[in-house]
Specification:
Helix content is 44%, strand content 15%. It is α/β, with parallel strands linked by helices and 357 residues long. The strands form two sheets. The chain has a seven-stranded parallel beta sheet with strand order 4-3-2-1-5-6-7, sandwiched between helices. Helix 5 (112-118) crosses helix 10 (195-208) and helix 6 packs parallel to helix 10 (195-208). The longest helix is centred in the C-terminal third of the chain and has 18 residues, at 339-356. The radius of gyration is 20 Å and the shape is globular.
């Protein structure tokens, strides 16, 4: 396999599964965490290593170290590996996804932005989702019963219990204080705004086709997905919040070994579900229109990434992230006609958001 984003949480879990089942890791691609990367090299002995920035190359304990986006794309195209795990963060993960599909490889996809921005221009049959929510929907969607609605769950993020009037004043540190687990900076901010869940709904739309999709808050993160059938019954996917299960299925195709301890309902005790409201999560206002016009995901993603950059830099408050996205969504109403349009719209939207501040 080729592993993009080896030092992030998805990458670390993927390597745990690879070691458990004796799977060959041909290429490791990492960012700035060279210390962890060197540990991974010692264990997995990849043929090639790619780092984001050349300044880090000399510190990597490997005889063949490449650098930058073009190196990633070249390695994907030339490698004999049949699987690419894409755990890169942000729009930067799109070109590697496209290159992998173009090269005839399967993609175990944890990079949300690939489908959000360009799902219309991909061969979905080459993609295996490894987000817990989409894996849950896939896991449940193995019967011939007609489906009425697919649901995914949300933790609620850092501000699920805050007084609504105080959320506008939240600091970066507040937004990074996730109630259930520790994640990377961007995804934690997206969880706080509920953007992360809107992206996942849009991903589900591309992965599973047209239909009804929705999300609810489940505060313990034990249930990841539910399916309502037309006969009135509902099934739910319970699993511990650990990415190794969806990763194992993506790598192995099927799984008979024990990956996680089963959920003990007596230990869980009770479950709490909450509605995702526009008052607490303003971005939810455009959810239905985005699902009706899924090609416009590129606008939402670009505006969100630009707004998060401004928030991290201290140029806008937390509440302005959703406002900037909604404003850009209303301003840019065209749909991309091809993959080149996706990159043009992404550039124009980012420039627009940055210019407004």
């Amino acid at each position: 396999m080729i592993l993009l984003g080896s030092t992030g949480s998805i990458g670390v879990n993927a390597l745990t599964i690879a070691q458990q089942f004796g799977l060959r890791v041909e290429v490791l691609v990492a960012g700035r965490n060279v210390a962890l990367l060197n540990q991974q090299i010692g264990i997995h002995n990849p043929s090639l290593v790619v780092v984001a920035q050349g300044v880090d190359s000399s510190r990597v304990n490997h005889p063949c170290v490449l650098q930058g986006e073009e190196a990633i794309l070249d390695v994907i195209a030339s490698s004999s590996a049949s699987l690419v795990i894409n755990a890169l963060v942000g729009f930067a993960g799109l070109r590697p996804t496209l290159k992998a599909i173009e090269s005839g490889k399967r993609v175990a996809l944890a990079n949300k932005e690939s489908l959000v921005a360009a799902g219309a221009f991909m061969d979905i049959s080459k993609i295996q989702p490894i987000d817990s929510e989409h894996f849950g929907l896939w896991y449940l969607n193995n019967s011939s019963r007609p489906i009425e609605r697919m649901l995914i769950t949300a933790s609620g993020g850092a501000f699920r219990d805050w007084p609504i009037e105080k959320i506008q004043e939240a600091t970066l540190q507040d937004a990074l204080n996730h109630p259930n687990w520790s994640m990377g900076q961007k995804i934690t901010i997206d969880s706080a705004s509920m953007m992360n869940k809107m992206f996942e709904l849009l991903e589900a739309r591309w992965l599973f086709g047209e239909g009804q999709y929705d999300a609810v808050i489940e505060t313990k993160s034990i249930i990841h997905a539910l399916i309502d059938y037309k006969d009135g019954s509902t099934t739910a996917h319970f699993a511990r919040a650990n990415m190794q299960l969806p990763i194992a299925y993506a790598l192995m195709g099927q799984m008979d070994a024990k990956i996680l301890p089963s959920v003990n309902l007596l230990e869980v005790g009770s479950l709490e579900f909450r509605e995702i409201t526009v008052e607490r999560y303003p971005i939810w206002e455009i959810r239905q229109e985005l699902l009706r016009n899924p090609k416009r995901g590129v606008v939402v993603n670009a505006a969100n990434e630009a707004a998060i950059e401004l928030f991290i830099a201290g140029k806008i408050g937390f509440g302005e992230i959703s406002n900037q996205v909604i404003h850009a969504f209303e301003r840019f109403d065209e749909e991309p006609k091809n993959i080149e349009d996706v990159f043009h719209i992404d550039r124009d939207v980012r420039h627009y958001v940055r210019r407004r501040v």
